[in-house]
Design brief:
alpha/beta, TIM Barrel, 8-stranded parallel barrel
Length: 229
């Protein structure tokens, strides 16, 4: 059975009541939660405060990507909401990551700072189309190494890259793996997916799961099945 504290449930909805119901239904399971762009654009910081105020651990998944000062100011504002984890695009570069790390450290509020490497829908062909001549694995490892040197605590990556990132960056460097599906589940719009067992065996510290749990008829029962998948 997998450790529920290593599972992050994605709260993908533009309905605030639905999001809060998922939190109330599942937070006693000791999992964490992830709030992304869909809900944040709809309801903003107030919804974040309501989730963190319930005592739940929250990963604020806004994938900041801008110039150093703008990104750092946004990160500081996000950290004031009581979040557990936040992210930015590792491809924003060392100057951005370094500035964000410096500003967060100065506030005394230090959520885990995670860099997004290669989005799980990207194939080698799509990377080539945007001028990246490396494979997803090579690009993810390169971004992780650069990010670690600049102050990241870890990265978001596919299960297929997590072990290589651990090898390159060390076992303490956190790997957060999305694209998790139950063995019988649909893949939807993600291509580099994995089951929980595969992800944990291949270096994931945390896995992110959304629809297989939240869209189930019984989310709590689906969560329990996930812990054994």
């Amino acid at each position: 059975m997998h450790d529920p504290e290593r599972v992050i449930i994605a709260l993908d909805s533009s309905d605030a009541d639905t999001v809060l119901n998922w939190v109330m239904l599942l937070k006693d399971s000791r999992c964490a939660f992830k709030l992304g762009l869909e809900a944040f654009v709809s309801f903003g910081p107030d919804l974040v405060r309501r989730i963190t105020g319930s005592g739940a651990r929250l990963f604020l998944d806004l994938k900041f990507h801008d110039i150093p000062n703008t990104t750092a100011q946004a990160a500081v504002s996000a950290s004031s909401l009581g979040i557990w984890m936040m992210n930015l695009h590792a491809s924003a570069g060392p100057a951005v990551i370094t500035e964000v790390r410096k500003r967060l450290d100065a506030t005394g509020k230090k959520p885990l700072l995670i860099g997004v490497t290669v989005l799980t829908h990207l194939t080698p062909e799509e990377l080539a189309a945007i001028g990246v001549a490396l494979t997803p694995k090579e690009w993810a490892v390169k971004l992780a190494q650069t990010g670690k040197a600049s102050g990241l605590d870890g990265v978001v990556c596919s299960a297929h890259e997590a072990a290589f990132i651990k090898e390159a960056c060390g076992k303490e460097f956190v790997t957060v793996v999305p694209g998790i599906r139950l063995p019988e589940g649909d893949v939807h719009d993600q291509k580099r997916i994995a089951t929980p067992t595969f992800a944990f065996a291949n270096g994931a510290d945390y896995i992110v799961v959304g629809r297989p749990v939240t869209q189930a008829k019984d989310p709590r029962e689906a969560f329990e099945r996930l812990l054994n998948a």
